[in-house]
Specification:
10 helices; alpha/beta
Length: about 250
């Protein structure tokens, strides 16, 4: 059962650890714009990609599956970067590995320059900063890519520590990336909380680390148990609702 919402004036937490992609930074919207640029620049329509919307939809499916394999140690990062393009091109019967590798490189060059955020992102970060919470980030993204996203979208000024899977040599939901983050931030478990969108990564990760969690349910899915029928500590359906917790 979810805990009671904090009463006014109460400050249960000191260190707030945010996820980036799909929580603050709108990955789907930004990846769509980036893939559309590649689609036009590389003339994929003339190569056989007859439906961009389907191309984008298939890319998201392949990307999610490959990220899951990467998190579980089955593939290396370079394979993830180009194979998500390769598999999406194969859906359109385009077996062109050099093109897939070129797209993988250009995609990572362009994607971090995008600035689309979820509604109320800046407002809630201003609100939390004004209340003197220590804001940090734990992200499974690549070091250079994630820092570039933060800088280009104007989010970098809010976070004291940014912990990436590449920099910590671990990934959510594994406990080790959280241990590394606590050490870097000088945070203890009792005063820390994880805020993210993904039950199997952010919320389970928080549970594995022994800290409370906020599930940011942007997609308004039914509340689900994560493991052993355990629900997230809190669930919100927009970033603005974080004001009811903090």
């Amino acid at each position: 059962m979810n805990k009671e919402i904090n009463s006014p004036g109460e400050k249960r937490y000191t260190h707030l650890f945010f996820d980036l992609d799909h929580t603050l930074w709108d990955f789907e919207a930004n990846s769509r714009v980036t893939l559309l640029d590649l689609f036009n620049d590389l003339q994929l329509g003339e190569r056989g990609v007859h439906d961009f919307d389907l191309f984008h939809k298939n890319y998201l499916v392949h990307n999610d599956k490959l990220w899951d394999r990467y998190r579980n140690g089955y593939i290396k990062v370079d394979e993830l970067r180009w194979k998500r393009m390769w598999l999406t091109l194969l859906d359109f019967k385009i077996a062109d590995e050099p093109l897939a590798r070129k797209m993988g490189i250009q995609f990572l060059d362009l994607l971090p320059t995008r600035k689309l955020l979820f509604p109320y992102t800046i407002e809630i970060l201003d609100y939390l900063q004004a209340k003197q919470y220590q804001l940090h980030m734990i992200t499974n993204g690549f070091e250079k890519t994630q820092y570039s996203k933060l800088e280009n979208s104007g989010l970098d000024k809010y976070f004291t520590h940014v912990i990436t899977s590449e920099g910590s040599n671990s990934l959510k939901p594994h406990k080790e990336i959280f241990d590394f983050a606590f050490q870097q931030a000088g945070a203890d478990r009792a005063s820390s909380i994880m805020i993210g969108d993904t039950l199997e990564v952010d919320i389970l990760g928080g549970m594995n680390a022994g800290i409370d969690q906020v599930h940011v349910n942007h997609l308004n899915k039914n509340r689900e148990a994560v493991s052993n029928q355990q629900l997230p500590t809190y669930t919100v359906f927009s970033l603005k609702e974080l004001e009811t917790i903090f």
